[in-house]
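To whoever is on call:

I kicked off a structure prediction for a single chain this morning and the downstream step that reads the tokens threw a length-mismatch warning. I double-checked the sequence; it's 423 residues and nothing unusual in it as far as I can see. Pasting both halves so you can look.
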Amino acid sequence: MTPVRSAEILAVGTELLTPFRLDTNSLYLTRHLNDLGIDVRSKSVVPDDAEELAYRLRVAMERVDLVITSGGLGPTADDLTREVVARVLKTPLAHDAAIAEAIRSRFEKRGMKMPEANLRQAMVPAGARALNNPRGTAPGLWIESGDRLVVLLPGPPRELQPMFETLVRPELEKRAQGRKVFRRVIKIALRAESQVEEIAQPIYSRLADAEVPIETTILAAPGFIELHLSARSDDAPVADAALDQGVAQLATALGSSVVSTDGKSLEQVVGDLLLARGWKIATAESCTGGLVAGRLTDVSGSSGWLVGGVVAYSNEIKQQFLDVPASLLAEHGAVSEPVGRAMAEGVCRRLGADIGVGITGIAGPTGGTPQKPVGTVVIAVATPHATTVKTLSLGGDRPTVRGHSVIAALELVRRALLADAPA
């Protein structure tokens, strides 16, 4: 049985070298391989070019135990992975009648005749084992060549992921020779990356030198920071205990800005707090155009605590549906703390919610003034006992300003719920 300690991933497809298609398969595969203790040494995107793919495959097989390809198993002329792998391994392709019949049956069940081109997908390198693909016509292939393992997977994630989880991962678990990787994620809102780094750096150093060393990576996005902690070990309880201690130290140092230490999203944490209180939430959004409500509805079961929302882009809608007084709009302008407050309180009254969010701002790139430049965003959160209003000055382009505003709004809701919690 071929032992597996290291791997390389080749994502095949010229479309992945354009701005129109993103390679998500490599991220998915890397996560699962790391979980098994298999070290991913390299990831490459390779065009539909036989010579380039052959070169990358040869190089990969010289330096790692396992090569996984994704893509290039379709029926068209530019789907070259099978042919190139067979050439590099110096093994002939042979027609597999069982695969051909399975593809033909798949078409017949849909009332269609199988095109002859699909027979290319039934050509298999000698000695390869076919991996069934119930979601598509391209079977995967498992090939052992000396002390190297080559696994060919289809490109569409909806086909690749179940094939990997049901047919490939169980086999790799038997062969993985490295220590498994255990992880934790700490999510932090409304802190600058440099602030988090300054607080966490002394703790990083101690964790890295511990009996079970912990690696820490910081990832930043507008309004949000993630700390990823990982430990390699053959002993799961030992690794878990070390990670728990590391998470506890970092969470204590970072304080109330920590959203979660168990990987939960901010919107899930907000939903849990609302559910625990028995409260309902409603949103009134201008510059974010419903993005806050959208994030909340990403959470399964959100119907239990989300009443609804109003996208109040114009002043007329603010007045008509949120009861924002015309005098406030005239005196302070739509992007102002009095109007944000009125929006949050108005949506609570109108929709019968316990907590309301009001957002109004200038997302850009136009619309700013010297007094209210692009990136000025007002967020208000109204509860039965108080209304909190905050004005932000955000940088970046329109999507960045809007995305940061959503995070800030949800974080202010989280903090309002915690502050309003019963003693």
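Update from on-call: the warning came from a stale cache, not from the record. Cleared it. Sanity check on the structure: The CA atoms of residues 20 and 174 lie 38 Å apart.
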